[in-house]
Amino acid sequence: MANGTRSYPGWQVLLLLIILGGIIGGWIGDAIIKVWPNLAMMGKVQSIGVPNFSVNLKVCTFSFGFMMHLNLFAIIGFVLSYLVYKRL
Q1: CA angle 67, 70, 72 (to 5 degrees)
Q2: Which residues contact 57 (CB under 8 A, 6 or more apart)?
Q3: Residue 10: in which H helix or E strand, if any?
Q4: Hey, which bits of 4-83 come out as E strands?
Q5: For 42-77, what is each residue's pLDDT tens digit?
């Protein structure tokens, strides 16, 4: 690279890595909490998002909703997956 800039993979790769990082971080967090119950406070889940709602138009019905259930381990997974993305 002659100009000194770095090209990263697309945003789709970043999105995939962050989703996988959050899922895997949550799984690892659940396993850690089962081994060390004293860390249960770190695994406390906070939910954010839009609850499920429906629009009935008599001809068709639309449903929409999005919820994220986050804990500290999932956030650590997000950060680690972002660092992996930066190394690609």
Answers
A1: 175
A2: none
A3: none
A4: 46-56, 61-70
A5: 888 899 999 899 999 999 999 999 998 899 999 999
CA distances from 18 to 1, 27, 36 (A): 27, 14, 26
**DSSP3 helix / strand / coil % (the chain, rounded to 5):** 55, 25, 20
User: What is the Cα Rg of the chain in Å?
Assistant: 18
Per-residue pLDDT of 14-23, as tens digits, reads 999 999 999 9
Quick count: other Cβ atoms within 10 Å of Cβ 77? 24
Residue 70 and residue 68: Cα distance in Å, rounded? 6
